[in-house]
Design brief:
The complex is a heterodimer of chains A (about 250) and B (about 190).
Chain A: H1 6-13, H2 21-29, H3 31-49, H4 61-79, H5 110-118, H6 120-136, E1 145-153, E2 162-168, E3 172-178, E4 186-192, E5 200-205, E6 211-215, E7 227-233, E8 245-250
Chain B: H1 3-12, H2 16-38, H3 41-57, H4 69-90, H5 94-100, H6 111-126, H7 129-139, H8 145-152, H9 156-177
Helix pairs in contact in B: 1-2, 2-3, 2-4, 2-6, 3-4, 4-6, 6-9, 7-9, 8-9
Classes of the chains: A alpha+beta (about 250), B mainly alpha (about 190).
Chain lengths: ~250, ~190
């Protein structure tokens, strides 16, 4: 007997009709047709079950927010490599010699590495920009502000330089700066302990646009590290604060 | 190139809007897989989040030639869910996990089966309109070919060919993307 007709196999797989004795005999003897029928039966079974997974409710928006937060954290070491404090107390072996513009995780950011090496300044802007774009996608409209600071110019900065900082409930810090002087290096945002100004942490670099969103490391005590500082940093491979502060302001909740 | 392939390419190339689109298109399927495998929604949401983060950071390992974006995402989610169940078992929390499951997983409810079902459902939603409609009537409403012809007003021969072609499309997708398909191109826990 010939192999079973494809239309016939579909009918059998859908259990719309039963195999007649001749077809049963053939199926018993023919591994190919048996395999065809089993596959179609399996697909028909899955197709019937597909009813329950149609038009699924979307995940809650908090999942998307979590994805963005995780990716921002993953991207942060690129835009803002963790730096030792001024005292170097937490200086890790090898950290000081690493070009701060080079991502620590090379493989996965391979495509970003070339421009970083080619032009560190441009790459920092580009990578930081990526972070901002990523964070900016469909942000829930009313992220709660937990603390604010107004940034005023220090004597090193033009008198009209200024900035505003908002800390959001989800652990992001939004920096909005204006009239910063041009730099051959880059601008960096720090949180400093005003009671011991050798204690500070770097939040990252400012992209070439007015507003930047930087993740605050989880667990940071913003009552202690409440002084927001924007500095002018040179591409000198020195991970510590340059000492050239441009703007400062204190966070209040 | 269909919309799925185009999205896959953009995703792989690092286009951030593709991440959001992929999430909107496939987030619910990933979530459902998590719920089915882990039995509770909070863990499933964690898995969904972790899956998209891992997919995005590992997007360069995604090979569109070897399967769809959905299949790849579900593969990641499945491994993450299984890892979580294993570590829960190690921590002795498996009883809690099991207890929290709404219904005990049956033999038919293996991770593979859930993945296959989601993949087939996705392919079904992508079939050309009439093909999809006839298959839905066959699968969901359990109508016979003649009944479908009567309901839709299509000639019986057309119904037959829609169903045969539709089944072939689903089967092809299942073979490429289903849980039993070849090793995925990415995934930390699967040795290559």
């Amino acid at each position: 007997m010939q192999h079973l007709d494809p239309d016939r196999l579909v009918l059998l797989a859908l259990a719309e009709e039963a195999a007649d004795p001749q077809e049963s005999d053939h199926l018993a003897a023919c591994a190919d047709c048996r395999h065809e029928l089993r596959s179609l039966e399996h697909v028909a079974g899955l197709g019937a079950e597909a009813a329950e997974v149609r038009e699924l409710p979307p995940p809650p928006e908090s999942v998307w927010a979590g994805i963005q937060a995780d990716l921002a954290r993953a991207a942060a070491p690129v835009a803002a490599p963790r730096r030792p404090s001024l005292l170097g107390a937490r200086l890790r072996a090898g950290d000081g010699s690493r070009d701060p513009g080079v991502p620590a995780t090379g493989e996965r950011r391979r495509r970003w590495l070339a421009p970083v090496l080619a032009a560190a300044a441009a790459a920092v802007v580009a990578v930081a920009g990526t972070t901002v774009v990523l964070r900016g996608i469909d942000r829930p409209p009313a992220a709660e502000v937990t603390a604010r600071a107004t940034l005023a110019p220090l004597p090193t900065a033009p008198a009209d330089a200024r900035g505003a900082v908002r800390v959001l409930a989800d652990g992001e810090l939004v920096v909005d700066v204006q009239n910063l002087p041009l730099t051959t290096g880059f601008h960096e945002v720090w949180l400093i302990d005003p009671d011991d100004t050798t204690k500070m942490l770097s939040l990252g670099n400012l992209p070439a646009r007015p507003e930047a969103v930087l993740p605050v490391p989880p667990g940071t005590d913003l009552h202690r590290y409440r002084l927001v500082d924007v500095s002018d940093e040179a591409h000198d491979g020195d991970a510590t604060h340059s000492g050239k502060s441009l703007l400062r302001g204190t966070l209040t909740s | 190139m269909g919309p799925g392939e185009e999205l896959a390419e953009r995703f792989r190339d690092g286009d951030e809007t593709a991440l959001r689109t992929a999430y909107e298109r496939h987030g619910s399927a990933v979530l459902v897989l998590g719920v089915r495998l882990l039995g509770n929604r909070a863990d499933a949401e964690d898995i969904t989040q972790a899956t998209f983060v891992a997919a995005w950071t590992g997007r360069e390992t995604f090979d569109p030639e070897r399967g769809s974006l959905l299949g790849w995402l579900l593969g990641i989610a499945r491994r993450k869910a299984v890892d979580r169940l294993r570590s829960a078992a190690r921590d002795g929390r498996i009883t809690d996990t099991v207890r929290s499951q709404p219904a005990p997983p049956t033999a038919a409810e293996t991770p593979e089966r859930v993945v296959d079902r989601l993949v087939v459902a996705d392919e079904l939603s992508r079939l050309p309109g009439e093909q999809r409609r006839t298959l839905e009537l066959a699968f969901f409403d359990d109508l016979t070919h003649p009944q479908i012809a009567a309901v839709t007003g299509l000639p019986l021969g057309t119904v037959k060919s829609h169903i045969r072609r539709g089944m072939a499309n689903l089967r092809r997708r299942w073979e490429v993307d289903g849980a039993a398909s070849g090793p995925r191109s990415a995934g930390p826990s699967r040795a290559r």
